[in-house]
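Exam review. A common question shows you a sequence with its structure tokens and asks you to describe the fold in words. Practice with the pair below. Do the first one on your own.
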Amino acid sequence: MKKTNKTIILGITLALMSAFFYAFNFIYEKMFLTKVSGESILFLMYFGAFAGLYTIHLFSKNLNKSNKNKITKKEVPKVLIMILCELFASLLIIEALKIVNAGLVSLLLVFEIVMTSIIAYLIFKEPIKNNDLISIFLIIIGFIILNFNPNSIKEISVSSLLVIGACLFWGVENNITGLISSKEPSLFTSVKCLAVSILYLIISFFHGTLDLSYPILMFYGFMSYGLGMILYALSTKYLGANRATLVFSFNPIFGVFLALVIFKEQITITFLISLIFMISAIICLNKSST
């Protein structure tokens, strides 16, 4: 598709909408943690994302009998790794949300950019540009400032490690996704969501924490993860995968502001300074692709 100004603007709009919807993911999780177990929340949200995405796939014009969208035997190990990465990452995020507020967790998710770049360099031998290094440096400085809080240094340190661990798993998943990105997004993502939801169902069942009292979480799961993914897939058609991903990287910043508005979370000086560093890092990263 020829990229005119109108198509580029449309692509950026879709990518920003995708980032916005996805940012609600952690808001919903934090909102229901006092009412239901983390495993039940994740089961309902991932199952809702699966149901919505698979329904879209069934009614999609892309539905055909071609084999190009089918997962091959060679790709099965990659898909299994992605499912496990999604499982462990979301578990770590839930544990972090039990400790600190959603705004802090959202801000620390900028580390997903760092982890994705480092893994791409170490494992897939992709070069790191100068602006990428500057972005990583800015994120690390922001992280240090964010953790320099004498009032709750222990809690924030633990939560930071949990979120960084989640970003590590997502970094692996992002790189593997790039290897099989030709698959039809609604079908491929729905299969992944179904597998993760089944694992959470098993975990919550054996822990005795299964609670299906809030089926609305299935709708929230589709709205945040499912709809976010569809909008992202559409944006790649107008921007290309690389630029769409970079615009989508603003989702942690959306998460921060949503948390501040919805939960009325307090803004500290260290949080504000760290936010400036994180935003600067994302802008710098986006400039490296132009």
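Now try the second one, then compare your answer with the model answer below.
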Amino acid sequence: MKELRQFVEVANQRSISSAAKRLNISQPALSRAIRQLEATYGVPLFMRTGAGVELSAYGSALYSRAVQILPALDEARDEIEHLQGRTKAVIRIATGDLWGLVILPRVIREFGRTHPDVLVEVKIADDGSRFEGLRRGVYDLVFGTLSYKYQAVMQVEFETFVRQGTFVYCDQHHKLANSTTIDVEALLEQRWISPGYGDEDGPNVLKTFVRDFAVRADSMPQALLVLRGSPYLMAASSGFRELFRTLGIVHVDVGDYGGVQASGAIYAPPAIEKSAIRDFLRLVRSEVTLLELPVLEVAKG
């Protein structure tokens, strides 16, 4: 199995040297492992290119199976060790910023109190990484919005817990913080922060305009640190309103909040067979009702 894991890493990195660094082994040792695997199957698994290596047709066939087998084997190992009392059961979760920063912390604290024998691993990741991780079996649960690509390639369940729109936020001392009527011209006069999403995200009144971005941050926490005390504006989920308020960031009422999106839990059907995951989702259902999230309705018509 070690050689199979090494094969997958080379395929992901498209470079033996880069894969060797990530695996913390020497490049010659990794090359020997790949040759041994090729000898086992009797076919070349990679083709050399000017930039590194690419999977051959044979390698692609092996890779598509390996990325399904390895997570399943890891899960089986974890379950066996848990049954032996050697380790805790594990729930692996990937989320977007709203779930990771606002909703799930409260759930995870309570779950840890009632399930001391379960380890919860949480990663805040972009939608593409969450999708790929769920597809490959790396994550048990994904929290966020359901995009078309999930249902296009795999069978998933989606349970809606909240509906979110897009608000405009600024520092509490910003000149627009206490304005009651704000027009598009006033918004376009300001400079903006992009919190790691597309620059087009924002209320409908801004969709057809190009904004002046001063900062593009890698993450929401980084964007918040820049926004506090700054003259900038930022568009982000309506669900952040109460959290941002505690940090001195306020919601600016611009007259609309864009398209409302359903957000919740995404998972492959087999995941719900685990009692820990059923308990976690049950707790999400009860705890999310206690959060002071804005209640947004889907526009009619």
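Model answer, second protein: The domain at 88-164+261-288 is CATH 3.40.190.10 (D-Maltodextrin-Binding Protein; domain 2). The mean pLDDT is 86. Full marks require stating both points clearly.
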